[in-house]
Amino acid sequence: MLSYDFYQNINVDMYDGPSVESPRIARYGDDGIGSKRFQTKTNNLLIRYYGEGIYAFKSAFRLYFEQSLPFIEHCDQTNGTMIRCRNGLACIPITHRCDNIFDCSDGTDEEDCPNINQTFTNGCGWRKMNQMLDDDNDDTLQIVNGKISQPGAWPWIVSLRLVSHEPIGHTCGGTIINRQWILTAAHCMAEYPNITDWTVHAGKYRELIHDSTEVIRYISKSFVHPLYIGSRNEIDNDNFTWYDHNANDIALLKLNAPLPDRMDMIGSICLADEQYGLDEGLISYVIGWGTVSNMSNMDVLNEALVPIITNEKCRQWMIDFNIGPSMICAGWEAGGGDACQGDSGGPLFVQNIVTKRFDQIGIVSTGALCGEPKQAGIYTRIPSYTSWIRNHTNSQFET
């Protein structure tokens, strides 16, 4: 995969072989696309970089190499004994289906199996490492005014990625609430409602590069809250307020197969129930791969601390937003940590002072100026939707 920052009249050509006479498999620089993925068929790659004028001295590119298994078009179907993994990376004996062992890295062999245990052995809201956010290591770039997370710090975060946009496919975050269900924002699914457009990546740390701990799943079902309006064209905007368009920003995604039951990089978060207290000043956590303070995107997961503020104060800070009861606001009066573009769908969560587990209280929904003074992030309030979540998942999550 190659990423680049090019000026006009700058190009990089990729040849699948040792010379320019070899097949050219990619050209970069003249189409305005910042990243592309390509695959060679030989063990040689020739890179030809060229440009014209002074701009040739101001451009650059990065190239990431990744070894992958050869793609399998068809399996040997003698007596119908083999099945092909959907990602085309392996063929497995049909007898391996539904044995609770993931022979296919995408879970194909464990799809639609009976008697699946949806919960993680260690329960929800736990993680293997004991890292906290309030230490003194603040010399890094941010989610917005936060810091870089450690691998495995937050095992419930997933990256929702558009297949057609890879390798820069990260579009939204989401959270694991059990081994087969993901919670995210409705607006993430609104523009691309076709579930085949997406893949879900758990155990992920770096945005652009595949991690050794990464597990990929497909979406089998998507449930956007039926009262979510968003920016649908068929809705008469004059008859609806800002709150009407942004309320109910919540969606559930069912995975094609369960996630592996392991605590190191993959686990579930607990959900705050209807009686959960969300007092002003409660310090919460927000994480994601979104825009950071320098208006670029980091390649690794970031985290920040934000305090809860009342909806009344939120309306005073942001007079154009009629914040409603199904929303939570969090932010610093003087400006500070905040979610931003690319963090949508990810969690707002707290550590329960009694149980010490981590409980999700919100979903990154919307906002205005990221991290600026008196500019709060606006989140979907989880306790307002616990019953809706329970009805769609058959109560297979923990509060």
UniProtKB/TrEMBL annotation:
<dbReference type="InterPro" id="IPR023415">
    <property type="entry name" value="LDLR_class-A_CS"/>
</dbReference>
<dbReference type="InterPro" id="IPR002172">
    <property type="entry name" value="LDrepeatLR_classA_rpt"/>
</dbReference>
<feature type="disulfide bond">
    <location>
        <begin position="98"/>
        <end position="113"/>
    </location>
</feature>
<dbReference type="InterPro" id="IPR036055">
    <property type="entry name" value="LDL_receptor-like_sf"/>
</dbReference>
<dbReference type="InterPro" id="IPR001314">
    <property type="entry name" value="Peptidase_S1A"/>
</dbReference>
<feature type="domain" description="Peptidase S1">
    <location>
        <begin position="143"/>
        <end position="394"/>
    </location>
</feature>
<dbReference type="InterPro" id="IPR001254">
    <property type="entry name" value="Trypsin_dom"/>
</dbReference>
<keyword id="KW-1015">Disulfide bond</keyword>
<keyword id="KW-0720">Serine protease</keyword>
<dbReference type="GO" id="GO:0004252">
    <property type="term" value="F:serine-type endopeptidase activity"/>
</dbReference>
<dbReference type="InterPro" id="IPR043504">
    <property type="entry name" value="Peptidase_S1_PA_chymotrypsin"/>
</dbReference>
<keyword id="KW-0645">Protease</keyword>
<keyword id="KW-0378">Hydrolase</keyword>
<dbReference type="InterPro" id="IPR009003">
    <property type="entry name" value="Peptidase_S1_PA"/>
</dbReference>
<dbReference type="Pfam" id="PF00057">
    <property type="entry name" value="Ldl_recept_a"/>
</dbReference>
<dbReference type="Pfam" id="PF00089">
    <property type="entry name" value="Trypsin"/>
</dbReference>
<dbReference type="InterPro" id="IPR033116">
    <property type="entry name" value="TRYPSIN_SER"/>
</dbReference>
<protein>
    <recommendedName>
        <fullName>Peptidase S1 domain-containing protein</fullName>
    </recommendedName>
</protein>
<dbReference type="InterPro" id="IPR018114">
    <property type="entry name" value="TRYPSIN_HIS"/>
</dbReference>
<dbReference type="GO" id="GO:0006508">
    <property type="term" value="P:proteolysis"/>
</dbReference>
